[in-house]
């Protein structure tokens, strides 16, 4: 079996994490600390993707989360919700202090995000392979109403093992949903181990291209690159797919590329301290 | 019933811009006029049930009322997680129109029968289940349910079934429809079985048993008041074209157990036994195999009533 290179091997000169990227990651660690559990690796890999969408690309209003003119962003890999919560907290959808209540009764911030509970969460996800279809429906609704809002759907690499994703891909392509932008957080590791070992996705870019998407790939931690590709649809006639090569656990060196950090159900205090320290060491 | 249901989708779409139609891979020409006159609200998406349900959820989140149509077993079993999570967890007004509820697709075999559809749909919070008995009732239901704010599973019969619901003025979700008065027993049924219940009640008269018939077109939420009132008779019979496990008879039994009320002679549940059918043929022939023809129903009710009396 051939394992594909990790993303830091593909992009050895990935730019260092800046203060915003570290700020959001600290919030993720806060939640892990307060909640005593969480999908660390899966959240850390998608921080820059979420960050660029919420900081730089999407139209949205925290004072009016259901504002009709907003761009929709669905985190289809719901287990990465700590990254989404961090972005929403940074944009004042709810107080940052709530991150520490993660997974506790009666907090609204659960281990998977829920639309009915958390302002700014567009769809309740967690069961994998649902988000792209919901995004297709939202993009069709925008078209019927002649609105120009965009729909972003972020999927995990393991998630796209699900056949439903490919049903949705055909549908998005059939309807030429150019306002739909899908992103794969391609960190190369799923729960059991390497994606290449569990159910290989390659050639991933070719697959999406064959399904009718305009495709690009980039360093998923390079804010400039993400801004460039997310700023506008990649095509005027096709849905867009951005394959973002990411590092599982990015920013916490000892957790990077380690499937043991996909999810933790117990995180001792010394590990929390080590995480904050490891994050600070990034430069 | 199916034709009436789909025609009503088009009628509703003409009246209300929120109505959209989503099919899988239905027969040629389905709702052709709707397709021609409102192409942006007509979708035929192929055999991708999981995607169809998610797509309908996305449309409903944006304020639309999608009517999704395919074969009943595929709209319930194939995409159960999407129905549970995308529709029911979000509590969205999506309508699932299931063709061929029960044994309708008898010639096509067990892969196409919907004989546990009610059991699985009933298990999900926020889901409403409707099983009309005839085309007239379907028309009343469709006209009344446009603004129902929850997901609905609509179980269709074969079509051409006799009209048994008479001159009801309107359809109210969650309300029982008494079809016949009786003093000894009450037969509680839904869908096309209500017609068979009436036929059985007529035969029972000749055997000296007075049977009432209460039609329950809404299986969830169930008309609990009507069920509890029926327990005042000597015996309740439940009749369904569905596995006995988890269907209408189960729902009625649960209501009575929860209020600790039981008719004097208990409950007799008549439905499909826990096995896949071993034969093909017509819906009627499979009904006969499972003892669901009026004569067999009559015999079973009479025998049980006499033994327990």
For the biggest β-sheet of chain B, the strand order reads 2-1-3-4-6-5-10
Order of helices and strands of chain A: HHHHEHHEHEHHEHEH
Q: Indicate the mean pLDDT of chain A.
A: 97
Low-pLDDT segments of chain A: none
How many helices of chain B in DSSP terms? 12
Question: What's the quaternary structure here?
Answer: heterodimer
Distance between the termini of chain B: 39 Å
Task: Specify the CATH homologous superfamily of the largest domain in chain B.
Answer: Thiamin diphosphate (ThDP)-binding fold, Pyr/PP domains
CATH topology title of chain A: Rossmann fold
CATH class of chain A: Alpha Beta
Q: Per DSSP, what share of the residues of chain B sits in E-state strands of 2 or more residues?
A: 15-25%
- Overall structural class of chain B, as computed from helix and strand content, comes to alpha/beta
Spans of chain B with pLDDT under 50 lasting ≥5 residues? Answer: none
Largest sheet of chain A: 5 strands, parallel
Molecular structure report:
The complex is a heterodimer of chains A (283) and B (309). Chain A contains 11 helices and 5 strands; from the N terminus they run H-H-H-H-E-H-H-E-H-E-H-H-E-H-E-H. By secondary structure, chain A is of the alpha/beta class. Chain A has one domain (17-281): Rossmann fold (3-Layer(aba) Sandwich). Chain A has a 5-stranded parallel sheet, sandwiched between helices. In chain A, strand 2 (151-156), helix 7 and strand 3 form a beta-alpha-beta unit. In chain A, helix 4 packs parallel to helix 5 (81-90) and helix 4 packs across helix 10. Chain A is globular. The mean pLDDT of chain A is 97. Chain B is α/β, with parallel strands linked by helices. Chain B folds into 2 domains: 2-155, Rossmann fold (3-Layer(aba) Sandwich); 177-308, Rossmann fold (3-Layer(aba) Sandwich). Helices cover 38% and strands 19% of the residues of chain B. Chain B is built from 12 helices and 12 strands. Chain B has helices at 2-15, 32-37, 49-61, 72-76, 80-89, 117-122, 135-144, 193-206, 224-230, 248-258, 283-289, 294-308; strands at 19-23, 42-44, 65-71, 95-99, 128-130, 152-155, 177-180, 185-189, 211-215, 218-220, 235-243, 267-272. In chain B, the strands form 2 sheets. Chain B has a 7-stranded mixed sheet, sandwiched between helices. Chain B has a 5-stranded mixed sheet with strand order 7-9-8-11-12, with helices on both faces. In chain B, strand 5, helix 7 (135-144) and strand 6 form a beta-alpha-beta unit. Chain B starts with a helix and ends with a helix. Chain A binds chain B through residues 114-116, 122-124, 126-127, 129-145, 163-164, 167-168, 170-171, 174, and chain B through 20, 40-41, 43, 45-46, 48, 50-64, 66, 81-82, 85-86, 89-91.
